[in-house]
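Budget justification note: compute hours in this period were largely spent on complex prediction jobs such as the one shown. Inputs:
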Amino acid sequence: MPELLALTGNDAVAYAMKQINPDVVAAYPITPQTSLMQKFADFVADGEVDTEMVLVESEHSAMSAVVGSQAAGARTMTATSACGLALMHEVLYIAAGYRLPVVMPVVNRALSAPINIQGDHSDTMGARDAGWIHIFSENAQEAYENTLQAIRIAEHPEVLTPVMVTLDGFIISHGVETVQIFDTARVQQFVGEYKPAFTLLNPHKPMTLGSLDFSDFYFEHKVSQLQGINYSPKVILEVGREFQRTFGGDCCYEHFEAYRMDDAEMAVIVLGSTAGATRMVVDDLRSRGIAAGMVKIRTFRPFPYEELAATLKKVKAVAVMDRSLAYGGDGGPVHIEVRSAMYGVNNAPLMANYIYGLGGKPIDLVHIESVFTDMQQAIATGKFPRRIGYLNLKE
Amino acid sequence: MAVDYLYYLRADKLPHMWCPGCGVGVVVKSMIGAIDQLGWEKNDTAVVSGIGCTSRAPGYMDMNTLHTTHGRALTFATGVKMAAPDKHVIVISGDGDATAIGGNHFIHACRRNIDMTLIIVNNNIYGMTGGQFSPTTPYGAKAATTPHGNIDPSFDLAQLAIGAGATYVARGSVDNARMVQKYIRDGLAHHGFSVIEVLSNCHTQYGRRNKMSDPITMVDWIASQVVPRNKAEKMSPEELQGKIITGELHRNAERPEYTDEYRKLIERVQAKQAARAGARP
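Corresponding output:
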């Protein structure tokens, strides 16, 4: 029987890790991730998991230990935030290049400088091209379910690609919600046993990882790495459907959620926890007869270009909300992807980008409403007031 | 003359974020006292820090301050000193910042003997992130990540600094603020890399888990362990068991300082090139 528990997002992910029961976990503290690993360390200390826990001296060491352990055939996890993820950057590419199915929850937080410990998406967006699958969560329940599914996605023999599951710092990580924790035996049956086809230290099948590879085969190896992540959209959907069938959850199991989009004239595109507030605004506008809709993107990498274009081509205006900046780029990273998705679409909708919430700046319903007001104006005049706007920014 | 502490502080940033009774205040006060004694100009002095409770200190100090990344303050500071070798560079750090994530940079700054001062507030724990064990958590002590006691051997920071090549090394403790100020002053005045370890109290994260949850009990615990160097010299190894020796532990005026060596190298190479150019017909 599923249990209903009052949990923070970090606790919910720690419960997922407890049920996954990884062979090895490496950890280093960083706000706002710390309480996640601390909760998991409780499970280790209380003998509720069989995990070997390695407490290392930096995030670079954490990800390096994870890579070593996973390469040796152990299902391995870690978790981090912000500067911790940045410090892992070098090793993220190595995990992906070795084709190791590591799963890592990332509690999104702003990057220095100036120093800030609150939520935004700068950290994982900085790792968007490292070769990992990125799955965003709207709330603690999704963070829990995404973590469980991520194991199956990463370890699928046609995928073998590491996955980061994100949850917004403080808003999800520290907010307490009612979370449905599914029966451990059934979860473990769903997750399955880790049976890697290749591991280090197997005398019957010796292997080498990551050795020097110049112009002879480096390019070929990197292109072949695409096979895994390019195959993953299909697996993400299959795993999601199986999860929903098995546990009957009501989270998003697609690449994105199209909320009230069937007859929408305008749509906000959003990642993570802000989807909750946006849904409220959409409902409110609908009650006043305004054809508002929302698209919540769940898989940012691989990005669902074609499906998203098919959904968005029906609306007249699109506003992309970004919780990070692509300095020198076209606003924020989500905006860049959505514009790219819409290239070549006939009668493509008008589009603008809204940057919000950097370093934990609050985003209120009124700010999201103002985005819809801009879209109404854009539909009426044929033009958005500006290409890139900033919500709740002191002028 | 009394020190005008507010002259050195950003009063608009106060009150500070440290817990009541935290030892880091003693260290910051001693540091300001030492700078004042030496008559250093605020505009000639840079204070650099990494991440952690102690690393918040430069935020309150009205000098040239640089708040950097976890463990790397010494590398940023090395850049500052190389660019402005005639200015004063101080790094203030904690045990986790300086010797766990930043351990590599710590030994290499010592090895280079670059003219900077590193003050380590050693409270045996990661205070800010919630009490995880650090490389100086004593054997057997409890931390958030060692609920059944720590089995990792701990670092002796002063010995590590000496072994790695620092040329002024002293250890003080927050129960004796006057000596902390003296060691910081001597370290700042020393021409070379100086390390001042200050044993400090984190009753919130360390004390609470080890039956010393108020600052007085914890400072008393520190005071009960420390033995000044001159007294320790007269004690037997048995008597010194479990004690921590404080005082000026190492001084070496012989080893060349790094920015001096760098300047000499430039002069040497330039002279050689000038001679070669002059020799041409």
